[in-house]
Amino acid sequence: MAKDYESWTKEELVEEIEELRRKKRFGLVWEDKEEEDVTRLKFDLPILIEDLSKQINSKNSLRNNMILEGDNYQALSALNYTHQNSIDFIYADPPYNTGSKDWRYNNNYIDSEDPYRHTKWISFMSRRLRLAKELLKEDGVICVTIDDYELPRLWLLMEQIFGEANHLGTVVIRNNPKGRMTKRKFSLTHEYALFFGKTSDSKIKRIPQNPEDKSHNYEKDENGEWFLPTNLRKQGVDSSAKTKDGKLHQRYFPIYYHPKKNLISLERGKDFVELLPVDTKGLKRRWKTSKEDLAEKFNSGEIFVKENKKTGWQVYYKFRGGLEGRLPLSIWTNSEFSASDYGTKIVDTILGEREQFQYPKAPEAVKECINSVINKKDGIVLDFFAGSGTTAQAVLELNEEDGGNRRFILCTNNDNNIAEDICYKRVKNVIRGYNDFQGKKRKKHETNLKYYKINFLKRGNTDSDKLLLAKNSIDLIQIKEDAHQKDISNDAFTILKGNKNDVIIIFEILSIDKIKEIIKKSKKEFSVYVFSLCEEDFTDYFCELKNVKKITSFPEPIIRSFESVL
């Protein structure tokens, strides 16, 4: 129905114009569909409660990995407090929305007859991707896998959220070499992995190459450093010995070499061979160095003379470049990326049961995605569509291969007990060691695992509501501070031992003097959280204690964090 602007007030017309200006003029536009799991957060606060029966502890590792059981939007909301701007890489394998009831929206399976099928999927993904972006570091990268069903919409959606300029590439992965049968289309053998950075600081890393594997003949010097012997004679553009005015360039000069004594000189001498920068066609070229630098580079070993069977004595220098590695290619066809051959078989073997999970990813494909992005070996990898837990296995295997300290965070719901019976069980068995489907013994991984379930507290503004939230926020603070071992816990305060520093959570202000005495006697550094109804500044209480590095009142920052995601 057309709008009757004739009857509108001036204020209403101004508001309508502003609304039209705010609307997108290009890109992906859809009718947002309300989602129950998101709407619930208007009334309830998601908190994390550890299931101690599922923890795995190692005496030889400080790495704490996590599985969060519950709706992934709610899990991401909790991580928005604990891990904002902290994640190095996000791997997401969402439902592909094939129309074959492969996912649910508001507890209803979505099929091909649903007229809002694509709209619901876009709404579902948009909310989660926007939250995920807030978790990434400034140079962080997200990778989302998808197939033809939603690729066009996902691509536009990610450009809208992350920016077109931050699209780092789309990789085609041959994940089903035998092909997937369709009624009237091509038999699909591949899927896509879309890589987007959070900012212009994000980038795809170069893959290191072994110098011995390169087509050029790299050599090692006496210090064990690789170099490529390269002719000191310049080639290509601006290499001619003649300048524009017809004169010889100053870098066209003779170098005299004594083969027996291995000496060079700019002066002719007895038994010295004259060497000029003349190429195999007889064209005069220039040297790549000046007369002034020649002796120094020769004496340091960076320039040397070597006899070539075809061209006689030649002057070379040690080219140290070309070993930065190569950028990953955009088509991946490695047989170990096959989900059917290396996804399902691996999961079945680890779980000890067949066909417990449909279409699991191949660990090698996930490892390749991680390796394409994270330069450091201690990064944090998040997967908020964790499914069978392939990402955890990929991270653990990468650490085993290169001695890294990467950590993983997995988020998955527990529909049909997927979190407990598949994801957790697989991760537990991989950590403890197992025999793979080829009969090879996979050894134990020295690492820790924490398992959390999402619980809810009613939103409220009363003093008792805030105290209840504070009492139930210990696990959130533990995760935020990476301090998981309780040292002291009572009604007045809790002390946590952490990997970087210890944490003190104070519920009763009257206990501050006692806390200060504990801090004075300790050599550790502390983060202090103090319960406050009005976000009071407690800095002055601890100003004389140099080992107190952070003082925060709570739970107001937690409440604000949850409000920011609505």
Features:
single chain, 566 residues, alpha/beta, Rossmann fold, ten-stranded mixed β-sheet, five-stranded mixed β-sheet, 26 strands
Description:
This protein is α/β, with parallel strands linked by helices and 566 residues long. The chain has 3 domains: 46-207 and 327-453, Vaccinia Virus protein VP39 (Rossmann fold); 211-319, no CATH class; 461-563, no CATH class. It has 16 helices and 26 strands. The strands form 6 sheets. It has a 10-stranded mixed beta sheet, with helices on both faces. Helix 10 links the parallel strand 17 (380-383) and strand 18. The model has no long low-confidence stretch (mean pLDDT 92).
Order of adjacent strands in the largest pleated sheet? 1-21-2-18-17-3-6-8-7-16
Low-pLDDT segments, ≥5 res: none
Top-tier CATH class of the largest domain: Alpha Beta
Shape: globular
What is the total tally of β strands?
A: 26
Query: How many structural units, i.e. domains?
Result: 3
Give the number of helices.
16
Separation of the first and last Cα atoms = 31 Å
CATH topology of the largest domain: Rossmann fold
CATH superfamily of the largest domain: Vaccinia Virus protein VP39
Largest sheet: 10 strands, mixed
Beta-strand portion reads 15-25%
| Secondary-structure content class | alpha/beta
Which CATH architecture of the largest domain? 3-Layer(aba) Sandwich
Q: Give the integer mean of the pLDDT values.
A: 92
Portion of residues within helices? 25-40%
- What is the alpha-carbon Rg in Å? 31 Å
